[in-house]
Design goal:
Ribosomal Protein S5, domain 2; Alpha-Beta Plaits; seven-stranded mixed beta sheet; 10 helices
Amino acid sequence: MAKPGIKVFAPASVANVAVGFDILGFALEKPGDEIIIREGSQPGLVISDIQGAGGKLPRDIMKNTAGYSAWRLMEHLGETKRPVEMEIHKKMPFGSGLGSSAASAAAGVFAMNEYLRTGLSKHEILKFAVEGEQIADGAYHADNVGPSLLGGMVLIRDNISLDLKKLHVPAGLCVAVIYPHIEILTRESRGILRKEVAFADVITQTGNLGAFVAAMYTSDYDLIARSLQDVLVEPQRAHLIPGFYEMKQAALSAGALGFSISGAGPSMFALCDNTLKAESVIEGAERLYKLKKIGITTYFSKINQEGAIRF
């Protein structure tokens, strides 16, 4: 009989948010990953079970995002000999652009932090979650892990020092997410990006990002709509997603404030100022991809302000 333990949930996230490549992201209410941690039967951390991953995830804690983030916290605290067992329950798809590896990393370190009763804040354990996700995509950035752990809309001033800020989110802001059932791996999606971009495009993107942040604090939906224009990354990745521009036009016609690629794709998101518009975007997506004979999963969500939680 399994010993009692603690159970946590960490949500999916939308990274980049059109104008903030690697420095902006927000948490969704669902989907997400669940992790259970309990006392183990041998010294050290052991992943005892992985559910919902179809055999795709390793149990080696040095190769598993959840295991490694939890292990790094144990190492930091000098608790590597403590016997701990971890169960991972994957509740979201791989390669979806919704921060699957980040949710696991955030859940892993948060669960261990709760289990050990360290008293450390989410901000203090964030670096271990980032290190965990780094195993999956090779990059050290917090635009998925930050929101998944901390919740909210997160702006990262500097990824190396993890200097970040949770932005004000206007009441009523919600999101429709469309996940076409194709897989795009983050490493591959990053690999197609040009190493250099036009100076004029950088100016445009910087203006859009600054205006977007200002609009969030002033609840200026018109300015949000004018700001959500990605001139750097979206044009390079859109061809990877079948029907992207058709879906974007349909979403904007349905009243979405903006529409772009979630993370590395293939998921797409539409920010909306009310639930009716978000539902209309989802209905349009279902019609479009039915015609294209491509299966999709859709999610409607408010911005999740809690992030990782214990339940």
